[in-house]
Amino acid sequence: MIIGKNKQAVIENIQRSIQEEHFHQKVEVDDPGLSPEEEKRILRRFPDRMRTVEYQLKNKAARGLVDAVMRGVNRNTEFTGLEHLKQIHTGAVITSNHFNPLDNTAVRAVLKKAGKKRLYIVSQAGNFAMKGVIGFVMNYADTIPLGNDREYMTGAFTDIMKKLLRRGQYVLIYPEQEMWFNYRKPRPLKRGAYYYAARFQVPVISCFVEMVEVQEKENEDFNKVRYVVHILEPIFPEPQKSVRENSVNMMGKDYEQKKQAYEKYYGRKLQYNFEPGDIAGWRYK
């Protein structure tokens, strides 16, 4: 499913970012922009909002809506590596490649199949300024904002992560940071997801979502794609190592696993020169 317009401009931004080796660059053109003050207001209000009765009621409705979307989007989604989840007996940080606003539904679907009822998702604060149904889901469907406010990130955000992980919940953090529409290749990773896994001594559930083109038009520029969610070997912190050592090592292992998965399932060596086939489903001319 394609959300948002101007995908040609997005692809041009992806090409430019690759040439400049800016793999965590924002490439979408329709995302809401926030001033530092607006971002701070969203971040600092969130912990109090989570504790209200209104939030709990809307959370239940939003989760039901997301589950309905999940079933629709993932009718033809396949899963591999479910056996790896049997190794997890605690909370966990989930990492996956990020290429569509709804790619989290594929991760959610595989967890539902394994009997996990909830998935928490970390998302940029700007997404919480969206309007309509998408804005409602972003604000209430077990989504946790992050941003540049140091006081929030070192205080409330860290407390939320600690509570969720110690309660045995799974939290999805995209280590590629920004979404690159239908981009097949795994990108270099940022360390944040692995920092929280290392700090709270929980494993990383490493995922790679493969996109398979379907010979059916989505619109004039794209064919439809379906997903195959590959659950890779979980990555555990080593108790004798420091948080920094663990986070760096876990990040390196995760990138290598995602790289190997890309090369195995797409049958090509990972290298960052842009080719039209890097954008799944693109009917380029």
In brief:
The chain has 285 residues and is of the alpha/beta class.
Fold topology:
Layout: H1 7-19, H2 36-50, H3 53-73, E1 78-80, E2 92-95, H4 103-113, E3 120-124, H5 132-140, E4 143-146, H6 150-166, E5 170-172, H7 192-199, E6 204-217, E7 223-231, H8 243-266
Parallel strand pairs: 1-7, 2-5, 2-6, 3-4, 3-5
Antiparallel strand pairs: 6-7
Task: Give structural notes.
- Helix content is 41%, strand content 15%.
- It contains eight helices and seven strands.
- The chain has helices spanning 7-19, 36-50, 53-73, 103-113, 132-140, 150-166, 192-199, 243-266, and strands spanning 78-80, 92-95, 120-124, 143-146, 170-172, 204-217, 223-231.
- The chain has a seven-stranded mixed β-sheet, sandwiched between helices.
- Helix 5 links the parallel strand 3 (120-124) and strand 4.
- The longest helix has 24 residues, at 243-266.
- The mean pLDDT is 94.
Strand order across the largest sheet: 1-7-6-2-5-3-4
The percent range for strand residues is 5-15%
Per DSSP E runs of 2 or more residues, the count of β-strands stands at 7
> Helicity level, as a percent range?
40-55%
Uncertain stretches: none
The main β sheet shows up as: 7 strands, mixed
* Global Rg: 18 Å
**N to C succession of SSEs:** HHHEEHEHEHEHEEH
Beginning-to-end CA distance, first to last residue: 21 Å
Q: Label the overall shape.
A: globular
Q: Give me the number of helical elements.
A: 8
> What's the rounded overall pLDDT mean?
94
Helix/strand/pairing category? alpha/beta
